[in-house]
Amino acid sequence: MLVYHLQIFLRRLGFNPGPLDGLLGPKTRAAIRAFQKRNGLVVDGQISTALVDLYTKMVKPETWPAHVHLGLSFVALEEIPGTANNPTIMEWAEELGTDYDGDPVAWSSLFVAHCIHRAIPGAELPVKLMSPRAYLGFGQSVDMAEIRVGDLVIFWREDPSSWKGHVGFYMGDHDEDILVLGGNQFQSVSVAGHPASQVLGVRRARRGQNGKLLAGMSSNKGGVDSDAKPAWPDRVI
């Protein structure tokens, strides 16, 4: 899992580690060497103690919200080809009490709903939780300039005015893409890039005046109480 996280980190800094596959291949080693050279480390392409220490200081994964860590634990979980369904994905739907016909149905929203439901007790999910665009009413709106790891990013698919969309947890950006941790990305849970030009909105859970975490839907179209406090740490890198 460390290699996978390093690949995300390197891509966010503008290096090219190749595919985000968790494998220490030649492109990932080349990206590591370039990063080591830039930061005055021994240039050997290895995951050294010095490299890990600098990575930890810069990324601070311990500050990532619980739903991100939970989501990362499912990385590489895949759909089952053919008529069978992945039992884990089916269990998410059953636990949430939502209709889900199986793997052929887009399940990015189901993944997001499961992570929020498990990591943020009492969270109020959208009534139509299988619809990515339903999350445009979740929590509070966030400007792209203030985006943080773990924020929800909602994208349009095919056409801005269509009902189709995709949703995932923000992990970084690379060139013109927004990197999100999500389900149904290449038929699996992964971190993948989506065009920033297709972002419909960014949402974040919030804290009320009493400090209690509130991750539910906004009560009005204008958003939430302007005094609400952010629910998790600042954007990193």
Written account of the structure:
This protein has 237 residues and is an alpha+beta fold. It folds into two domains: 58 residues; 168 residues, Alpha-Beta Complex (endopeptidase fold (from Nostoc punctiforme)). Helix content is 27%, strand content 19%. It has six helices and nine strands. Strand 4 and strand 5 form a beta hairpin. Helix 4 packs across helix 6 and helix 5 packs across helix 6. The longest helix has 13 residues.
List the helices and strands and how they pair.
Elements: H1 2-12, H2 26-38, H3 49-59, H4 66-72, H5 87-96, H6 108-119, E1 140-141, E2 152-156, E3 165-174, E4 177-185, E5 188-195, E6 199-204, E7 206-207, E8 213-214, E9 229-230
Helix pairs in contact: 4-6, 5-6
Helix content: 25-40%
Q: Shape, please? A: globular
Looking at the overall shape, the CATH architecture of the largest domain is Alpha-Beta Complex
CATH class of the largest domain: Alpha Beta
> Can you identify the CATH superfamily of the largest domain?
endopeptidase domain like (from Nostoc punctiforme)
Mean pLDDT: 83
Q: What count of helical segments does DSSP give?
A: 6
Spans of at least 5 consecutive residues whose pLDDT stays below 50 are: 208-237
The H/E string reads HHHHHHEEEEEEEEE
Strand order of the largest sheet: 1-6-2-3-4-5
What fraction of the residues are assigned to beta strands by DSSP? 15-25%
- Sheet bearing the most strands, described? 6 strands, antiparallel
Radius of gyration: 18 Å
- Here the CATH topology of the largest domain equals endopeptidase fold (from Nostoc punctiforme)
> How far apart, in Å, are the first and last alpha carbons?
19 Å
**Which structural class do the helices and strands define?**
alpha+beta
